[in-house]
């Protein structure tokens, strides 16, 4: 009889002791030109992330030129006094860097990612873009044409069309928030290199800007690098800009954007609520996550798992704008899509979920799962330098202290079920939601009216 051979296995690895984690705190400083700098050393992150925030909010755009901030942001990478657009792109590629820019209500943001070994070159390129952008006629004209080409595609997208209508419904026509962030066909068509440069010269200066640098800075003389690059950018001191209050009308009502023949209805329910300066924010984040933050949330459990109306429904809070005095506003919304015949039943069930939540509250189990998902995975969420830099930049834009994110996770972990319930019920009151439906009005208007959730108005899709 053959004797079986035995094998010695390596001992199974055992989990080590969990290490405490907190969102990293940056160091603050100021360059001679007035530029505020936040730096955060992250050992092992060999791709350095740089965020530059410019105090050029959408509300500062001249009348009739909505979208000029977006065109300016895109034009920063289209040539400088040293490089043409093609040469600038080649220089970025040569040092393995990427440069993106976008405009939003708080201002314009440039995002650079570059290997730590090429940080000096990357900082030099973004500094040139800010210091002396070319804004060549041909490049701005091309960017305007590209933007005009994008608009019809956005209007054809049900979720984008719903978002546009919700902003129009919530905010007064005089408010910049009521209009598309990147402009309309009429306003973008009037933008040229002269209007872009005028906006740049009026609003872009180092004294009102902030740079965030995150990554492995071992052996890097960051002060010297910043001095030689972003420190060469000059400009006037500038004055603090008054930030108007956010005004909105969240009277409960329904607006149907008619899309004849649509086989699905895009749902977007929203209102304006407190932003991150409000003490209720942690509880609101937790409660909103329980309502519609993941596949195990209440809305998904009913509308997706039990009824099969949708592939998913999400509830969220998105900060719109904050002021230094702690005032501001966030968009509180519920979004998803359902098949056309079940639009009425799906909305009925959605309202039932909200009413049940108000009557019975969240469960401890729901609260515990939300805390695990929000707090427990935070170290993974911030593994990259870009994620840390983006969050630090958000804090700057929203006039929050540097330790805000670390405090938020501690507050989330300490928030109880009763607090989370009260916050989410106040965030989504059943009689104070503006409901936008993008779908076939002929099929969905009557069932929606029968629900009694507000006056129903039909508008024509562009």
Architecture overview:
- Pfam families: Peptidase_M16, Peptidase_M16_C.
- It comes from Streptomyces griseoloalbus.
- The structure is a single chain.
- This protein is globular.
- The protein has 17 helices and 12 strands.
- Helices cover 41% and strands 19% of the residues.
- It has 462 residues and is α+β, with helices and mostly antiparallel strands.
Main β-sheet description: 6 strands, mixed
The topology string of helices and strands comes to EEEHHEEHHHHHEHEEHHEEHHHHHHEHE
- Tell me the overall shape: globular
- Determine the strand fraction and express it as a percent band: 15-25%
Work out the oligomeric state of the chains in this entry.
Answer: single chain
Domain Peptidase M16 N-terminal: 38-169
Protein name: Pitrilysin family protein
Pfam families: Peptidase_M16, Peptidase_M16_C
Region (Disordered): 1-20
């Amino acid at each position: 009889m053959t004797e079986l051979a035995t094998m010695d296995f390596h001992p199974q690895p055992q989990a080590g002791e969990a290490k405490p984690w907190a969102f990293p705190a940056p160091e603050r400083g100021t360059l001679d030109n007035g530029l505020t700098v936040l730096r955060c050393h992250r050992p092992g992150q060999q791709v350095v992330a740089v965020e530059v925030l410019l105090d050029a909010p959408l509300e500062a755009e001249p009348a009739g030129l909505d979208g000029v901030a977006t065109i300016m942001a895109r034009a920063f990478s289209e040539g400088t006094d040293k490089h043409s657009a093609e040469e600038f792109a080649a220089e970025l590629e040569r040092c393995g860097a990427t440069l993106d820019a976008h405009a939003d209500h708080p201002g314009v943001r440039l995002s650079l990612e570059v290997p730590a070994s090429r940080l000096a070159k990357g900082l030099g390129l973004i500094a040139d873009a800010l210091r002396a952008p070319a804004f060549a006629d041909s490049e701005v004209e091309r960017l305007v044409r590209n933007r005009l080409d994008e608009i019809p595609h956005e209007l054809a997208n049900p979720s984008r069309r719903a978002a546009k209508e919700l902003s129009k419904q919530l905010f007064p026509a005089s408010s910049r928030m009521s209009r598309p962030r990147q402009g309309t066909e009429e306003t973008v068509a009037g933008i040229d290199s002269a209007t872009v440069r005028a906006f740049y010269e009026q609003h872009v200066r180092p004294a009102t800007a902030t740079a965030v640098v995150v990554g492995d800075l071992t052996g890097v003389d960051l002060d010297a690098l910043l001095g030689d690059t972003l420190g060469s950018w000059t400009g006037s001191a500038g004055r603090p800009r008054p930030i108007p209050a956010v005004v909105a009308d969240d009277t409960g009502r329904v607006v149907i954007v008619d899309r004849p023949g649509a086989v699905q209805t895009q749902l977007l329910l929203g209102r304006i609520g407190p932003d991150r300066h409000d003490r209720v924010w942690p509880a609101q984040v937790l409660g909103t996550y329980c309502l519609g933050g993941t596949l195990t949330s209440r809305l998904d459990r009913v509308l997706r798992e039990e009824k099969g109306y949708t592939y998913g429904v999400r509830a969220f809070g998105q900060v719109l704008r904050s002021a230094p005095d702690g005032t501001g506003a966030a968009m509180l919304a519920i979004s998803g899509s359902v098949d056309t015949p079940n639009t009425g039943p799906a909305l009925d069930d959605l309202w039932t979920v909200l009413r049940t939540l108000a009557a019975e509250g969240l469960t401890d189990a729901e609260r515990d799962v939300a805390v695990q998902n929000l707090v427990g995975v935070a170290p993974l969420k911030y593994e990259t330098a870009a994620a840390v830099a983006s969050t630090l930049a958000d804090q700057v834009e929203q006039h929050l202290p540097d330790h805000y994110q670390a405090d938020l996770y501690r507050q989330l972990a300490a928030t109880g079920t009763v607090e989370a319930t009260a916050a989410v019920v106040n965030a989504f009151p059943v009689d104070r939601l503006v409901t936008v439906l993008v779908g076939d009005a002929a099929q969905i208007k009557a069932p929606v009216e029968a629900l009694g959730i507000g006056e129903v108005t039909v508008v024509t899709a562009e």
